[in-house]
Amino acid sequence: MTHFDAFNGDADGICALHQLRLADPQEGVLVSGVKRDIALLQRIDARAGDAVTALDISVAENRAALVALLERGVRVEWFDHHFPGDVPVHPNLRVTLDPSPRVCTGMLVDRHLGGRYRAWAVVAAFGDNLAPEALALAADLALDAERVDELRDLGDALAYNAYGDTEADLVAHPVALYRLVHRHADPFSFIRDEPIFTQLCASRRDDLARAQRVTPAYVLPGASIYVLPDAAWSRRVRGAFANALALASPGRAHAVLTPNASGGLTASIRAPVDGGAAADVLCRKFPSGSGRAAAAGINDLPVDQLPALAREMARAYA
Q1: What one-character DSSP code corresponds to residue 61?
Q2: pLDDT tens digit string along 66-88?
């Protein structure tokens, strides 16, 4: 039997899988990529008797491949917090799905495991820009403020690494980064002993400094839209910059867009932290839009549709 672990390459996907494999070690095939590479099941050549675990990727984006695997006799377990669409019912499928806006996949796995590796769930929540939830989880660990800030920095660093249109944009491939993370049951030993942590923090800091010098393309009553230049640093920082804007102005929505290889724009969109229309509902008005209520995106927005995005955001977040 072959076991496949398919996981989103961001902080949430990495930390969710890490918790599961600390609790239930499995030597298997790891399948991941850049954050927006979420149609991962079509890359899995599994057969009857094999098993797949999917984490932090949408059932809706993988449904056809999922059904095909189930019909071939593959067992599938799924943990996710994105919009799931029509979830198949099958004896070989077990799902833990919760698209609530204030939850992430690492938190779902934390519940599943009864909090056995909670520090990594804190990292996942910080990485998904769920600071209040991360702080609530951290309170159970009796950590001082300095240690909590270290977990926040780790979550931010792992999340930052996943953004990019291709793997060439990333500082480290998510599979390689997961393998480094998985050496450490304790996140603080990863922070202390793995040079990649310092490298990611420095790269993120430099990219954010560049992004913060960009003037917004649209300033709407309840939202702002930024278009960054066509560069690897822009693609890397797209999500981190959107998160930073959301934390700095929690009553507003934010969109950060970068040019992509098809000639269109790739967008990362954040709903107001203080509450408002769901970001995934807005993004699904465009053909390549998906995500979750608090944070969503559009993979390929035609440039001439940028004014339409501005109109939709103005209506949703006025």
Answers
A1: G
A2: 999 999 999 999 999 999 999 99
